[in-house]
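Lab manual, section 2.4: Encoding a predicted structure.

Procedure: take the sequence of the chain (71 residues), apply the prediction step described in section 2.3, and record the output as structure tokens. A sample record is shown.
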Amino acid sequence: DYLLSRMDVTSCISYRNFASCMGDSRLLNKVDAYIQEHLLQISEDEIEVVSITVWVSLEADAKMDILKQVV
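Recorded output:
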């Protein structure tokens, strides 16, 4: 939970990579939820390639929710 308390839109992609490499599904799920909630901010702060990586990692339902917000 320490990592989650330190996470922000500029660090969440690195946290996701760390959780994935460590095989920590609990942390990975929480980071993914954070990414879904903050995707618009993340995409504004990160380069386009990272935004695409985040987008690809999301489930279809999460993508639809975000698209509804954007459109």
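Check your result against the sample. Residues 25-45 form the longest helix (21 residues).
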